[in-house]
Amino acid sequence: MVDFEVQRSSRKCAATEREFRGGEFFFSVLVSDGSDVIRHDYCEEAWEGPPEDSLGWWRSQMPDETSKKANWAPNDVMMHYFESLKDQHEKQDLRYVLTLLMIRRRILKLEDSEQDEEGRDQLVVFCPRNESEYKVPVVDPDGPRIKAIQDELGQLLFRDAA
Fold it and tell me: Is 5 helix (H, G, I), strand (E, B) or coil?
């Protein structure tokens, strides 16, 4: 497993050099440049899909300056939800996405990746808070499912700023 830092958004389109407006949707893509990983952001009008050699891509929305800042649910709540998904096989893609989110938030630590007895990829993660190790199947969601996962995580794990 290779570790790399993902840069923050440049807040402007790599193709048009136009600044993103608050509330505007945009696409981000990661590409390899030698030993570096470079992030490029594109406005919706300039997005032509990810390059063939991309490492990953996603769609985001530029925060609106007038909107309240969203806050994450407490780490214990996120951890409890993560553990509750273990036996819900129809939501293993949601658990995988939540795992990636919790790694990014440093709630979980990525220890390794391996294959299970059936040859499927899985992440091995460790939670320092409860000193537990978890094996999470890698289940990439398809297009329609991505939106459903975003909505579910948004409803369950974000709360308005006080």
Answer: coil
* pLDDT tens digits, one per residue of 53-93: 888 888 888 887 666 555 677 888 888 889 989 988 888 99
What is the Cα–Cα distance from 76 to 107, expressed in whole angstroms? 9
CA distance linking residue 73 with residue 102, whole number of Å: 11
pLDDT in tens, 97-150: 999 989 988 999 999 999 999 999 999 999 999 999 999 999 988 878 888 888
Domain residue ranges in the chain: 1-67, 70-160
The DSSP output letter for 41 is: E
Q: Among residues 35, 26, 25, which one has the least CA distance to residue 5?
A: 35
Q: Closest Cα to residue 143, out of 58, 60, 86, 61?
A: 58
Six-digit token pair at 158? 């974000």
- In one-letter notation, the amino acid at residue 46 is A
DSSP state of 12: B
Phi, psi of 132 (to 5 degrees): -120, 150
Residues with Cβ within 8 Å of 80's Cβ and at least 6 positions away in sequence, in order, are none
113 pairs with which residues across the strands? 123
